[in-house]
Structures are given as C-alpha cells and as structure tokens.
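Question thread 4412

I'm putting together a teaching handout and wanted feedback from people who do this every day. The idea is simple: show students a protein as raw sequence, then show them the structure tokens that encode its fold, then repeat with a second protein so they can compare. Below is the first pair exactly as I plan to print it.
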Amino acid sequence: MEHRCLSPWKGAVVGGLIAFAWSALSWMALPFHERTLSRFVDPALVVNVLAANAPHSGVYILENDPKGQTAPTDPFLFVSYAKSGWGSMGKSMALGLLMQMIGAFFWTWILGKIPGLTLKDSALYGCFFGLCIGALGAMPNWVWWKFSFSFTAMYVADAVIAWTLASMALSRCYATACALPKKP
C-alpha cells in the first residue's frame, strides 16, 4: 500500500531542505570537518606550482608507478583544481540544495512504498539510506583516491544524520494530512 500523501515532489522540498540544513550546519558551524582537513605549509608555493603545471581546471593525478619511471612517483597526489578559484558561494549552495532535493525526491518515492511506515521505521530506514550513500558514495574515495579515513567517515556520518532526520520529518509531516496505515 502506497501513502497517497507522501508525494515525492513535496518530499523533495522537505527532505532536501532538511538534508541541506544539516550539511550546512555540519560544515559551517560544527568543528568536526575542520579537524579532517590539513593545510599546506606554503600555500603560495603550491598555487604557483599548480599554475605552472596545470594548464586548465580539472582533476589531476600523480600516479605511483611501481614499474619505475624517470619522473617522481611518490607520494600519491590527487588534486581537484579550479584555475579561476572557488566561485560564487551562493551558486554552490544552490546546487548543493538542488542535489539534496533530487535525492529527497527519490528517497520519498521509496519511503512511500513502505506499508505501515512509522516514525521509528522512518528513522531506521533513513539511517540505512545514509549508510548506503556513505558506503557507495564516499568510501570509494578513501579506497581509490586515498582521502583520509577521518574525512570520509565524517561524510558518512553526515549522510546518516541528514537522512535520518529527513526521513523522520517526511513520515511526520504527512501524518496529519493523511492517515498512514498502522502496523498490525
């Protein structure tokens, strides 16, 4: 039995806003992400080296070739380089919100297929959904691109918290407008 009031369109707005709000709070107000980032000793030197060696914006890699080559191959380096700088924070935030809303649309559609959805079920399903996002979306960066485990684990924790909260809100915000079926 589907929940006729659990609209993916409404869920995209509600769930997307909640997931985005958690992400913004986590990155901008809480200290945990800051602790997973390192700083260069001489940032100007790094920028000058990149400007001289990276002709355009993009993702660059200095691979470790165990067969041996003449160029230095250690350490491993993976860089996302934007030659023109960060850009507009407003545009980045709008795109971030849009991405969360797209995820919330899909997640609301899935939640709407669960018969007898309760607040506890929503929280557990949202937690599991966040774990899936983290395991499939963030952990490969730790495995293949050598992102630090602490940085990656914070992303997983953010996904778990954001989608647990969003799922609870989605299950509750429609309960008053539409009687959800009770579990037997």
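The second pair follows. I'd like the answer to focus on this one:
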Amino acid sequence: MKDLAQNVKVDHSLTAVVKTASANGTGIDTQGFQSVTLVADVGAACITLNGTNKFSFSLEDSDAPASGFAAVGNASVTGGTVDGSGHFQVVDAPGHAAQAYKIGYVGGKRYVRGVVTHAGTHSTGTIVGLSVVLGDPISAPTANQAND
C-alpha cells in the first residue's frame, strides 16, 4: 500500500463552523500541484431543508489570490457537473445533510476557492466547511501538516 499523506496538501478555503448566510472561501494557491479537489463538508442540518431553505456549493477560480474570482464551468471540473450558476451541489433535502461532496478542478487558473450560497431562512444555521485537497505535487513529499 502507498502512503497518500505525503503526496497531498489540505487547505481550508472556508473553516467548518455554523453558517447562517452565504460565504466566500479564501483563495488557495495551487502552484506546485497537478491535481485539485474541492471538498464540501456538511454537518447535521439545523433547519428543515427543502426547495426553499437550501444551500449550494460552487467552485471559483482566479489568477489573483484575493480578487477576480468567477464560477467555473463544466470544462474546468471533473467528477461532476455545474449548473448555470456554477453550483456543483445543492443541499435541499434532509438526506443531503451530514454528507461530504467533492468536485475536481482541471482549469488553468492558479487560485481556487469554495463558495456556499444560502437560500431561504437559515436562522439556526448548519455547520459547513470547504477544503481544497492539492495532489500530485511537483516536489514530494509535502510538508507534514500535523507539525506545521
């Protein structure tokens, strides 16, 4: 069996905390890595999820670390599709909570970030986090994040 831990780096784009409103993640630098995956982690729903009270996840890219982000299209993702608004996952039913969702990125921009968009009423919120997994490093092993 091969060790994956030395060949990936995980960065938080949006730290997992209770969210009651839409939020943009931080841009993550993909330089030095040849594969990128966005992981959306959803906790137990603290609201009744339905077609009105829901949230969606999207992936955005940019050439700059803090500006110019735009939703990616289907040509820039693998392992799923994005809708016309750039969303790759809509969480709108009780069975969609307490799950993790992922989508791969194959676009040409240096920075990526995750975005969570809320619709409806989310007064009690739901724990949501967005992480970027960077893989296939040009120079391995990657840093030991447990000791960083």
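Top answer:
Good format. For the second protein you could add a caption like this: The chain has no helices and eleven strands. The CA atoms of residues 28 and 85 lie 21 Å apart.
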